[in-house]
Design goal:
Blueprint: E1 3-7, H1 19-27, E2 30-33, H2 36-45, E3 51-54, H3 61-69, E4 76-79, H4 92-102, E5 107-111, H5 116-124, E6 131-135, H6 143-150, E7 156-161, H7 166-176, E8 182-186, E9 194-198, H8 200-209, E10 218-222
Parallel strand pairs: 1-4, 1-5, 2-3, 2-4, 6-7
Antiparallel strand pairs: 7-10, 8-9, 8-10
Length: 223
């Protein structure tokens, strides 16, 4: 029987990796990763030398078929993302679906660890017995309708957002719910980590006054 390990990797600080994740990567015959250069930096930090194969949202059908065939040859295959837990706003979910459908004898293991989602929740102080994780909103088509729907929910809503659209998202929320309390986590666990709270208008002003705060990867929570 072959094994597929879904391995969480650090979202910034390379020390945020579990002992089990390191053991699994050392055991692996093949490591599937978004960007082989990023993954090899992590492996090098822990003196791990393994064959890495790219798997990302632009992988062709032929490349995906080739990856699925790996399970006919190798016993231990790991899947990692560039940062965090694979399959959370990540193309890894597609591979897992295909393995379940086409390679039914493959056992799938969760090697848990870092996640920007849970990291942001842990520092928010917001009630989190129930929440909705929305991931990245569509860039254009359906964006406004989706945001309108999400902001009607009676519990916290969590978004991922990029440096290019964080100001846009704050403005969109401000137009709809100017008094709602928000939290932004910027570059969690990295050198330029920042956690900011306030209304959308408050946060927009802070980011405008210090443009460096607009750079990076963001988790935004609407309380």
């Amino acid at each position: 029987m072959s094994n597929l390990y879904i391995v969480a990797t650090p979202i910034g600080n390379l020390k945020d990796i579990t002992l089990r994740a390191l053991e699994t990567l050392k055991l692996s015959d093949i490591i599937l990763c978004e960007d082989t250069r990023t993954t090899k930096k992590l492996l090098s930090a822990y003196d791990i030398s393994k064959k890495c194969i790219s798997f990302h949202k632009f992988s062709t059908e032929k490349e995906i078929e080739s990856i699925l065939n790996l399970f006919d040859t190798y016993e231990h295959v790991s899947l990692v993302s560039d940062a965090g837990t694979p399959a959370v706003s990540d193309p890894g979910s597609l591979l897992i679906q295909l393995v379940k459908k086409q390679k039914t004898d493959v056992k799938i293991h969760a090697i848990v660890g870092a996640s920007a989602l849970t990291g942001a929740i842990s520092v928010s102080g917001f009630p989190m017995s129930q929440f909705t994780f929305a991931g990245f909103l569509p860039h254009k088509k359906g964006r406004q309708k989706k945001l309108d729907e999400l902001l009607t929910y009676p519990h916290s809503i969590i978004f991922y957002e990029s440096t290019h659209r964080i100001m846009k998202l704050l403005e969109e929320i401000n137009v709809r719910q100017p008094d709602r309390e928000l939290l932004i986590c910027k570059e969690l666990t990295k050198i330029h980590e920042n956690v900011l709270t306030g209304t959308a208008s408050d946060l927009k002003v802070q980011l405008e006054e210090d443009p460096s705060l607009q750079k990076g990867e963001f988790v935004l929570i609407c309380k």
